[in-house]
Design goal:
0% strand, single chain, mainly alpha
């Protein structure tokens, strides 16, 4: 448990850092909102011509909002940090620390993703309800499996990206 506490502390620091830089958060909110608005207009033009494979406009907009939510939440700095550490040579310094290199970056990614998930989740829900209203087929008991799936996919995505980044040393 003691070993795990240092990674929890790293996650807390990255969680707080994500919120501390408010200008970055607000600019990503604005970009996300603009992105959703533009694609809603695009899908609105498509739906004026007819339906798309039996999906309603509301379903398509909610799909767009949630898929971009996932993309914005999983956008982390760990991949960029790995590249910077390799280029600058600080990777050797990082490996000498008393924490596992990948778990250190994963804890940072988890803290950042949790904060982004909370912020962008609230924004996604607000935009969805404001633009098209509630999703008629959605049930509240579906939230837990969806959140579990998002957490597992974020974890898998992180480790696959780190695997790709660190595979440069095998060549």
């Amino acid at each position: 448990m003691r070993r795990l506490s240092k990674y929890v502390a790293i996650a807390k620091i990255h969680f707080a850092n994500t919120l501390a830089y408010r200008a970055g958060v607000w600019s990503r909110f604005a970009f996300y909102t603009l992105f959703i608005y533009v694609f809603m207009g695009l899908w609105g033009a498509i739906y004026r011509e007819g339906s798309v494979h039996g999906y309603s406009y509301t379903q398509i907009v909610w799909y767009l909002i949630m898929s971009e939510f996932v993309a914005f939440v999983m956008r982390g700095e760990a991949y960029r940090a790995l590249g910077d550490e390799v280029r600058s040579g600080t990777l050797a310094y990082q490996l000498g620390r008393p924490v596992h290199y990948l778990l250190y970056h994963f804890a940072g990614f988890a803290g950042q993703a949790l904060m982004n998930g909370l912020c962008f989740g609230a924004l996604a829900a607000a935009l969805g309800f404001a633009f098209v209203g509630p999703l008629p087929t959605f049930r509240m008991e579906e939230i837990a499996p969806v959140l579990l799936s998002l957490g597992l996919s974020a974890t898998l995505n992180f480790f696959l990206m780190m695997l790709i980044g660190l595979s440069a040393f095998a060549i």
